Amino acid sequence: MLQAMGQRHTRGNDDAVVVGSGPNGLAAAIVLARAGVRVRVLEAEPTIGGGTRTAALTEPGYRHDVCSAVHPFAVLSPFFATLPLAEHGLRWAQPPIAVAHPLDDGGAGALFASVDETARALGGDGAAYRIVIRPLARDLRALAGDVLAPVLHVPRHPLKLARFGLRAALSARMLARGAFEGARARALFAGLAAHSFLPLDAPFTASFALLLAASAHACGWPFARGGSQRIAEALVSVLRTHGGEVTGGVRVRDLDSLAARAVLFDTSPAILEQVAAARLPERYRARLRRWERGPGAFKIDYALRAPVPWRAEECRRAGTVHVGGTFEEIAAAEAAVTRGEHPERPFVLVAQPSLFDDTRAPPERHTLWAYCHVPNGSTLDMREAIEAQIERFAPGFRDVVLARAVLGPRELEAHDANFAGGDISGGLGSLFFRPVPACDPYSTPARGIYLCSSSTPPGAGVHGMCGYHAARSALRRELRAPPRT
């Protein structure tokens, strides 16, 4: 059944229904609506947006991003580039330094907008950084369509993609050890690779570092002015101009009340398996149940009386700060999480939106967003470990804290059922054939049922490409309308 704030949602004349209003679900709905399909998005929570929601989590006047905060892939996304998002209210705030990575000597590695400025700051590793990153940064916008596509596709730029793939297939440890000699460059590379939620010895972890470093130069790591909720609001506004509809507070329990020809799930494989159980074959359901969840996240949102007192000047001008020390420390922390342990010195991802967006906090006040990786379903309170790491590189940090809101894995799952056990990555069952090996990873064995979440290629990130590809699959297979770009 469909339960909508205590009311039953009746059958309509929709050609397609999208379950879930994250960026991928909204992207899928826009693709369908632009093709002339009557489409409705149903969201379980009262607030639209999934991982792109903003809320007053601490004190009045402070706006905090509940999940995603920094959006390099949103400005890189080939699909978002086709949408007039600025006309629908979306504005970006670009920090002068995308990422800073402090070390115990008081200095920091940093990703500036310029490859050359970044290379100069890396000293003796500057030449190697230019060799590794400059070609990818130059080609990244052209390559985005291939990098953010299903594995099985005809590449538009096969030679450039192959050149990227040779390094991308390596582990982060192997590439960093082979390319860089200094602690600063290696630490910077480790922090980027740790976005993968994987141990840094794992194959293809270098790909995360390469793409994130190149994106800092190609398009930046911006914040959405006013909060990540503005991304969802702009997408909803675009959808409505094409006749699509969005309804919040509607939890889909099964498919009995949906009369649509196609249903696209912007959900985890587990929710797809539960809701569509009556129509999916048992063999496929069993494969969905075996989908491996990723590590959880333990997140703290802060209201601050002043900016974080970082020792390194670069950190004071960076939108994102990677807190974790050397390559070896970060690798050890991520390996511990993979083993189901809690690192004493976790790798902490920190975002400082209010330094560049004055809508986030009252005058002269600031917000801070910080999280670390923990084993899936963890119940351990990591606030002391997180704050000790920040204090390590910003002495006096605790003195500027006015209030904090703690979101452990359970709280994150309560905000969004797709974040089971605190997994915000869409699962780690496979980097490429998500959620099961298939030529078309978005379709299921049941006619008219599709998966369009970050558990499909190209995976996590606010880019909408999972929804874009899933909607095109539905148009080809089910709705018999030619895909429109």
Walkthrough of the structure:
- This protein is α/β, with parallel strands linked by helices.
- It has 16 helices and 19 strands.
- The protein has a seven-stranded mixed sheet, sandwiched between helices.
- A hairpin with a 2-residue loop joins strand 1 (2-4) and strand 2.
- The chain is 34% helix and 16% strand.
- Helix 1 (23-34) packs across helix 16 (465-479) and helix 6 crosses helix 8 (205-218).
Summarize the structure.
The protein has 485 residues and is α/β, with parallel strands linked by helices. The protein has 16 helices and 19 strands.
Helix content: 25-40%
User: Radius of gyration, Cα only, in angstroms?
Assistant: 22 Å
Number of helices: 16
**Total DSSP E strands:** 19
The 3D shape can be described as globular
Secondary-structure class: alpha/beta
Straight-line N-to-C gap: 34 Å
- Average residue pLDDT: 93
Low-confidence parts lasting 5 or more residues at pLDDT below 50? 1-11
Major sheet size, sense and barrel closure: 7 strands, mixed
